[in-house]
Structure formats: C-alpha cells, structure tokens
Design a protein that fits this description.
Layout (H helix, E strand, L loop, with lengths): L19 E3 H24 L22 H13 L15 E2 L3 E3 L14 H8 L5 E3 L1 H4 L9 H10 L2 E3 L11 H13 L1
Parallel strand pairs: 3-4, 3-5
Antiparallel strand pairs: 1-2, 1-4
Amino acid sequence: MLPVNGHAWKDSEQPLEQRGIEGRFFCQFFREINNYRDRMTRNHELGFSRDDVVDPPDWKPSWRDDLTSRRLVADHIFPWTKSISAPLYARIPEASRCQPNIYLSYPWHPPLLASGYGVIETVGECLKAGDCVWMDVFCHDQHRVGSAVPQIEKVIGRVQRLFLPMSEPPWFERCWCVWEVGEKLGDQ
C-alpha cells in the first residue's frame, strides 16, 4: 500500500465508477491480510513478542474472528485510512488501479476467505488476466456514511460482469445485494 504522505484525498480526483483494483493485487491483498491475522493469532496464543510487526494505528485486534467484510473494515481499513479520511483505493499503488469490469456484490457477514464459501476464493477462481474488480471496501470511502445509490448505479451500469459469490448465509438475505442484481438486470 502507498504510504500516507499528507496528500488530501478528493473524491473528484477519481470518480467512484472508475475505481477498480487489478485482480491479482485484489486476491493477494486478502491473502496477506489473512496471513497477518493468522500470525497474530499464533503469536498471541503462544505468547511471542510482536516487536517485529507494526500494527496500523488504533488497531484493536479480533484475532479469533473470521475475516468478514465488517472485520476487515473495522480492524484494517478504518485504521489505515483514518488520517486521510479516504477510501482504501487512495492507498492502492497506481499500477494496481484500473477501470473496473467486474462489480462484486456480497454480504458483510460470512468469512471472506472461508474454504468453499469464501467470497475471495470464489472470485479469485473466476478472474482472468486483465480483470479489474470494484468492491465497496476498497473503492467507496468507508468513513462517509450516506446514500451511495446514485454512484453505485453508475458503477453497475459500466461494468461488464456482476459477481454474486454464494455464501452462508446466502447473498440474497441482504437487501442491498438484491438491489444490485436488479440494477444490473435493468441495464440489459
């Protein structure tokens, strides 16, 4: 990730519908987060010193919890972006940014990396070279709560594919996911 260098992020610099993350970077990012959390769990359980690992500022670990979107935002994205009040996208290297061709719709409760039902594994298996993913935890500013409907309509209208990885509980238990599907079907 890019360092926080005092550059103030402005949403107008890169419209939401143009913020995408290159597929390989996307998958690797989640693997590294999961590996970090696994190491922290082992270190905590075994009583190892953590002097060689720098936590994000204000990080409050929940090591034993599965990595869900809620945990990802609370434990990692908020702390990494708090000082610049920006989307995680602002810290993604330029070489890993691209015009999204895939929109990822998913519920926030199931584990992102669970074997068999993990959102990231499912998406990773479907990605081709050159694919670029739009996922709200990366691209939308998680510090700003409010209606994103008009912006999301633009994003969904521009992508080629809408991914709906099945998970436990099923994605359709979340009204937002159902709306996203209806929005994409309305474009066709």
